[in-house]
TrEMBL record:
<protein>
    <submittedName>
        <fullName>Uncharacterized protein</fullName>
    </submittedName>
</protein>
<dbReference type="GO" id="GO:0005525">
    <property type="term" value="F:GTP binding"/>
</dbReference>
<keyword id="KW-0547">Nucleotide-binding</keyword>
<keyword id="KW-0342">GTP-binding</keyword>
<dbReference type="InterPro" id="IPR001806">
    <property type="entry name" value="Small_GTPase"/>
</dbReference>
<dbReference type="Pfam" id="PF00071">
    <property type="entry name" value="Ras"/>
</dbReference>
<dbReference type="InterPro" id="IPR050227">
    <property type="entry name" value="Rab"/>
</dbReference>
<dbReference type="InterPro" id="IPR027417">
    <property type="entry name" value="P-loop_NTPase"/>
</dbReference>
<dbReference type="GO" id="GO:0003924">
    <property type="term" value="F:GTPase activity"/>
</dbReference>
Length: 138
């Protein structure tokens, strides 16, 4: 429950599959929010996450998007600085968080962050208001 509203999330894990990238048009009408995850210990993962974000941006739909840096527990092996992830997210009005998938509370916080924005979006749509949250045009 977010701000007195129930929020149910259907999560599709497409795990960066290249064969899916060409089919994003099939998904765009069915999504209300997007989470893109990268591995902070792998720069190629960050570059791939950026490509995924850009591949979604060709559509005319405004949704909240969350960029997640994963494996925060492996700080000694970090290859992508927090500021890099934050700067990319800021440049496209995305939400940003770093988590360790080993810490359930951090993962829940990431989904709560997205869900809270979705609740605002739903409320705005019901009231025919312009979105009052940062969103990305996909």
């Amino acid at each position: 429950m977010i701000d007195g509203e129930y929020a149910a999330l259907d999560v599709w894990d497409i795990t960066g599959q290249e064969k899916i990238r060409g089919r994003v048009a099939l998904f765009r009408k069915k999504i209300d929010g997007l989470v893109v995850v990268y591995d902070i210990t792998n720069i190629e993962s960050f570059v791939s996450a950026q490509k995924w974000v850009y591949s979604w941006m060709v559509f005319e739909k405004c949704i909240p998007l969350l960029l997640v840096g994963n494996k925060k527990d492996l700080e000694d092996d970090r290859k992508v600085a927090t500021l890099q992830g934050q700067a990319f997210a800021n440049s496209l009005s995305m939400m940003f968080i770093e988590v360790s998938s080993k810490n359930v509370d951090e993962v829940n916080k990431a989904f709560d962050l997205l869900a809270s924005k979705l609740v605002v979006c739903i409320s705005d749509k019901r009231n025919n208001n312009k979105s009052s949250y940062p969103c990305i045009m996909i």
